[in-house]
Amino acid sequence: MEEWRQILADSIVKPKDLADRFGLDAKEIEEIVGPYPMRITPTVLNTIRAKGDAIWRQVVPDAAELADIDAEDDPLEEDLMSPVPHLVHRYPDRVLLMVTNQCPIYCRFCTRKRLVGKPGFLKKGELDRAIAYLRAHSEVRDVILSGGDPLLLPDHLLERILKALRTIPHLELVRIGSRVPGTLPERITPALCEIVKKYHPIYMNLHFNHPDELTPEVKAACGRLADAGVPLGAQTVLLKDVNDDPEIMRRLMHQLLLARVKPYYLYQADLTKGTNHFRTKVETGLNIIKALQGHTSGMAVPHFVIDAPGGGGKIPLLPDDYLVRMNDDEAVLRNYENKRFSYPQSKATGGRELPMVGARASYQDDADAFPSYGDSYPDRDGYAAWGNSCGGDMDD
Ligand SMILES: *Cc1c(COP(=O)(O)O)cnc(C)c1O
Ligand code: SF4
After folding, report:
1. What is the pTM of this model?
2. Residue 352: which domain range?
3. Is the CB of 91 under 6 A from ligand 1?
């Protein structure tokens, strides 16, 4: 057996083992892990400093999961946007492909809590069907391997998938979303890095929520991926009593940059059933962005997004302080120190300005007055046509 498999096998999955280690009630844990499996790798277990701390809350089952009965299993409506099993096609040019439902740890707040860690996920032929779908859809230029955690697949299977994807000419980017480097760093072997290298451009977005997760071993694992030429991003979920604090977030973002990982998204927690005790107010995330932007390296500031309930996709949010007002004469701005500045508008005519985003008044919630983004930009060709008809003659 490969070393990392042995280490994964040494994880805590049985309620009794967890109960013995921390003096908990095994019966209560058993009830929770029935519907929602548990796994805690040695790396993560060793990072827990005290009962109830930020690492503990992410991985130790909590009775609140079962008490959350009114919420929905699939608030993002991923299942409804799935043309073939395990593939979610929500955006015009990119798709999400769930290649496994196994994870190194089972995060208690997982958006796909309905799916992860249960037996019998990928059925024979399903991956082939997903790849056939990608092959048939030439508008897809970006595929995100997700799950579950793609890096838990054995090397030969991961390589088979990457190789098949690279036979599709219109597919430009392959991304992998993973929590493995932060929880099972031993999995990032030289052999894995050699495989990944062959199929560039491959991007990875790694899941990290707390600065304590960036141990020296974890940083070294990220370094191996970076050395293999993989641009690394981070996805962080805003979680109550884990990281809902500007100072913790600042430390996390700094640790990520030290690990050669660029913060990408900060997610507002989803409404998934069994996870609602992790939700914060939206203001918490906005305040965190305000505490970062301008106060530290711009590299350290992720995009704060809400994945809209009902399948609306990711919607970015910025504190609304920065743009005080905007009209044809000027944009009045406020910086991170609360100082005001005026940026005079260009007086040149015949530019390519969009008619609607100019006036602050247009931001008001008036769905009928303005075409939706989708209406204005049906596809890449549509964009060009629209630009020509509305933007005037650029040579004027
Ligand atoms: C997040 C997500 C993507 C990728 O979104 P980006 O903003 O391009 O990172 C694609 N498809 C689905 C279903 C997603 O949830
Ligand atoms: S690693 Fe990702 S997919 Fe797996 S349980 Fe955690 S959040 Fe969910």
Report:
1. 0.89
2. 323-389
3. yes
